[in-house]
Amino acid sequence: MHFFLDKIARLNCKWNKTPLTQDDFYRLCRRHKVAVVEIPLRVSGFYYCLLGKHYIAVNSRLRQEKKLFVMFHEFAHFLMHAPDDGVTANFHGVGKKTRKENEADTFAICALIPRTKIESSRIQDLTETDGFSLELVNQRLELFHRCGF
User: Fold this and answer.
1) Element (H, E) at 77
2) Residue closest to 62 by CA, chosen among 77, 35, 46, 41
3) What pLDDT band is residue 89 in, cutting at 50, 70 and 90?
4) Domain limits for position 82
5) What is the pTM (predicted TM-score) of this model?
6) Are 20 and 13 in contact (CB under 8 A)?
7) DSSP 3-state assignment of 143?
8) Phi–psi pair at 7, nearest 5 degrees
9) What residues pair up with 91 in beta bridges, in sequence order?
């Protein structure tokens, strides 16, 4: 967990302090030279590395909350699971939940609903006013209670 938090701290993007936006996602991708493509897909999204270049593909048909979650989820794969060379791909929501998938989910959840928001908001406000799904809010609460962030 310490390695995870150290890598995120080096991003200098206010992760888990203020809600990150689509603009923040694209800014991070530009800074780290990750190409992003939004196209209709049969999956929510995926991260892949080909010949040392990094790419994130996102399903353009997703509703905004889900799309933003997938974007940050896939960026987390780049940040924490990027290979040194060769070809690899990580597909969002495909296969069983591994440690890597849980880490990517944690990054995305805290990017969208930071600790400050979870400490100062009611569940009803997060779902009705901010538009988060009850499932996402419950996942964030569980993460806060289990890990303290």
Assistant:
1) helix 64-81
2) 41
3) low
4) 2-147
5) 0.88
6) yes
7) helix
8) -65, -40
9) 46
